């Protein structure tokens, strides 16, 4: 079972589109897909809770990278939400709910993949863990405020409902996840938790993501079929948001930080916690929530593809890691000659 779940997690670049296609076909076949809405809450918990079990909250108290953490969160909350807001208004001037979905993509920075991609690129994983925890906490607090501030003039924003849903989809899984983590550590010890048990949880979260994407597509299938070009029009603004974000973060990372910290900054600002954004969209905005969810579902595809390509190009952008340089005879020869 774990191998199957792990396979799904490692191949999100095609499993997400596959589940979207499956949900679309089911939505066309079903006479009334609204009955599937009862699955949203359990799938939400399945999506968020496993992530919380693996978070290391004590990293918030560790020092030594204040500048890196501060710059990361300034990009996350003082730059990207406003970029998303203006792009959303530009591309969807007559559809405030699509603009809201676009904004929601930007408001919850970092994901479990922030740590994974940083590690694969040989970046600063300790800093990435802290970015993930801090970004999650700040995003949970600021999301309702940003939505009300930026979109309140064009949409009736259910502030109480959003705060309530954030409590349901973030705080409750966070508390239960932390308790689960401590119970496991108490029974099996930290070394075994980190080596064997911790890796069992992220694939479960992936299943929740895939099922939520499936439900979102099922609920909107008939609307998409009625206006396929409208659905495809969601892709350009999402690409613009991610590409501008990547370019900005890369420039700042290369200019002000070393290789390891620069890569952590890129993955800590470009990757968004689309799982929680999807959960908020599906549980807080009624019928319009499934329309908002479409943007987030497409965001998964774009985010995964761009991240995988960035990993491949990271050594060309930031240079090879020091340990790789040490192993490369040509590099040794070059440095000796110079």
Report the CATH C-level class.
Mainly Alpha
- State the helicity in percent bands: over 70%
- Poorly predicted spans: 330-338
Q: Under CATH, the topology is which?
A: Na+/H+ antiporter like fold
Number of self-contained structural domains: 1
The total count of helices amounts to 17
Mean pLDDT: 84
Q: Whole-number radius of gyration?
A: 20 Å
Question: Which band does the percent of strand residues land in?
Answer: under 5%
The CATH architecture term is: Up-down Bundle
**What is the SS-derived class?**
mainly alpha
Order of secondary-structure elements: HHHHHHHHHHHHHHHHH
Number of DSSP strands?
0
Shape: globular
The biggest beta sheet reads: none
* Terminal CA distance: 54 Å
Structure characterization notes:
Helix content is 81%, strand content 0%. With 338 residues, it is an all-alpha fold. It has a single domain (2-337), classed as Up-down Bundle (Na+/H+ antiporter like fold), CATH 1.20.1530.20. The longest helix is centred in the middle third of the chain and has 30 residues, at 159-188. It is globular and about 55 Å long.
Please name the defining characteristics of this protein.
338 residues, 0% strand, Na+/H+ antiporter like fold, 17 helices, mainly alpha
């Amino acid at each position: 079972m774990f191998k199957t779940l792990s396979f799904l997690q490692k191949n999100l670049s095609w499993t997400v589109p596959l589940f979207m296609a499956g949900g679309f076909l089911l939505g066309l076949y079903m006479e009334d897909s609204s009955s599937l809405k009862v699955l949203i809450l359990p799938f939400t918990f399945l999506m968020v809770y496993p992530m919380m079990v693996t978070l290391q909250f004590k990293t918030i108290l560790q020092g030594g990278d204040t500048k890196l953490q501060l710059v990361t969160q300034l990009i996350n909350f003082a730059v990207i939400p406003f970029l998303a807001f203006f792009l959303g208004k530009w591309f969807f001037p007559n559809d405030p709910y699509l603009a809201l979905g676009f904004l929601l993509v930007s408001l919850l920075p970092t994901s479990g993949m922030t740590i994974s991609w940083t590690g694969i690129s040989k970046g600063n994983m300790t800093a990435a863990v802290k970015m993930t925890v801090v970004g999650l906490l700040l995003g949970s607090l600021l999301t309702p405020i940003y939505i009300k501030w930026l979109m309140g003039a064009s949409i009736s924003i259910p502030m109480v409902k959003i705060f309530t849903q954030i409590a349901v989809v973030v705080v409750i899984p966070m508390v239960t996840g932390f308790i689960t983590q401590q119970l496991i550590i108490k029974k099996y010890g930290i070394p075994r938790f980190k080596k064997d048990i911790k890796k069992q949880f992220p694939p479960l979260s992936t299943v929740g993501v895939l099922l939520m994407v499936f439900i979102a597509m099922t609920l909107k299938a008939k609307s998409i079929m009625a206006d396929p070009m409208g659905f495809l029009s969601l892709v350009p603004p999402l690409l613009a948001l991610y590409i501008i974000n990547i370019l900005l973060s890369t420039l700042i990372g290369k200019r002000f930080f070393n290789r390891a910290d620069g890569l952590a900054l890129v993955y800590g600002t470009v990757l968004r916690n689309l799982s929680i954004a999807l959960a908020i969209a599906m549980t807080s905005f009624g019928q319009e929530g499934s329309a908002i969810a479409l943007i987030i579902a497409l965001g998964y595809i774009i985010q995964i593809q761009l991240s995988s390509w960035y990993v491949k190009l990271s050594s060309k952008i930031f240079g090879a890691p020091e340990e790789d340089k040490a192993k490369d005879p040509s590099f040794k020869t070059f440095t000796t000659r110079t």
